[in-house]
Predict the structure.
Amino acid sequence: MPGLSCPGCSRAMRSLALARAPLASISIDLCDDCQAIWFDATESQQLTPGAVIQLFRAIGSSQATQREAYPALLPCPRCTTPLSFTQDLQHTTRFTYYRCRYGHGRFTPFVQFLREKNFIRALDPKELERLRAVVTTVRCVSCGAPVPLERSAVCPYCGAPVMLLDPDAVQHALDRLDAAEMKRIAPQPMSGDALIAIANVERELAKSRRDFETESGVDLLKVGLHALRVLL
Ligand SMILES: [Zn+2]
Ligand SMILES: [Zn+2]
Ligand SMILES: [Zn+2]
């Protein structure tokens, strides 16, 4: 069966089977080029912690071969009705996605999925200070624009804060895995120190800075995913 067509680029999406409680599995569709996931109906709420980690890994290893901006109208892969841009709030976390008004599902950019699951978060002032010592410009995780750190910690184009992958959040998700999944994934224990995220940035940049530089500055999400690859 060919994959659903991607709302962003209209090419076939790639299917990924994920574990679902208690025994069944669900298959979600993702597009590497658009760096986004299509969830049918309520699929995103049914993800087990193991499935979230599986998806997180898929995001970490996803490579875009051609990256284009989304078109003005994104058609629902089920009914072709244009998806509605939706802003959501969960506790204090804001995230966005594109939703079919007939309930067929939603198209969620990777970054928004990571926000929704609290894997990435804004930096606190202390972390920002440390980051400024090693990086002058970062790439906005939401829109890709350059964010000059000496002036602000907010993207001048879309208003998104400078965000980092939060290893504590990843650890937290791992902790919620059941014993069997825990064994299968075999995570390394990590320090609970909140500053480990920054330590990762410093260490990874010192090792291979060139890998993370884009024309818009350093891609902190890429640095974080790279640092956590050993863990996942
Ligand atoms: Zn696409
Ligand atoms: Zn639809
Ligand atoms: Zn931005």
